[in-house]
Amino acid sequence: MLEPLGLNLWFADGGVVSFKGFDYPTRMVVVRLADGGLWLWSPVERTAAIEDEIRALGPVRNIVSPNKLHYLFLGEWQAAFPDANLWATAQTIAKCRELRFSGALADNPPAEWNGQIDQFYFTNSPFMDELIFFHRASRTAIIADLSQTFSETFLKRHWPWWMRPIANLSKMVEGWGYPPIDYRISFRNRATARPKIRELIGNHPEHVVVAHGEVVRTGGEAFLRRAFSWLIQ
Predict the structure, then answer these.
(1) Cβ atoms 57, 10 nearer than 8 A
(2) Tens digit of pLDDT for each residue in 191-227?
(3) Consecutive H or E run containing 19
(4) If we measure between CA atoms, which residue out of 8, 2, 63, 13 comes closest to residue 34?
(5) Positive or negative: CA dihedral 53, 76, 80, 136
(6) pTM value surpassing 0.85
């Protein structure tokens, strides 16, 4: 279930979840840090199979949610790994009061992965704050909802016919990778976000893993220039 993508980084696809009446695929990322501990991003539904594969890679030390929509399975992973640190954005922490968090994440990474995984914090939409991550060793950008790359196959299988043209017109499809139109429209004070996106692109990513859509396995830098052309142009 875990698929390697670059040095010490794996991803795994979970099941499909419903959001506002539409089906969304789920995906998690696992990074092995320099101390051998594991960093879990946006964990999918926990199963015995995926848990066994993760345990075989090393001890889970950090579990990370990138925004308040990626919280569904945090509790079950925290129960499985009670000694791991649980991290999230401020909005997620406020939403999930029943969970034990080690701290709120913003632009500066905590000591646990500082120098290995960079993070870029976006509070531009009043509806959601979000973190984009960049794993230096594998040159992989990791994005939750600020870039979506739905394939035509997925849309035909899971979305109603009348929504598929909207997804294509919104460019939240494979090859473009825009966020949903409501996210773009609500994205304010864009001048504060542009330097962060330019810094991310300046890291020359080779891969891009998104939570919803197709993984970009090569040419990540060029992809990000297209995916964020609505912001940086």
Answers:
(1) yes
(2) 999 999 999 999 999 999 999 999 999 999 999 999 9
(3) strand 9-19
(4) 8
(5) positive
(6) yes
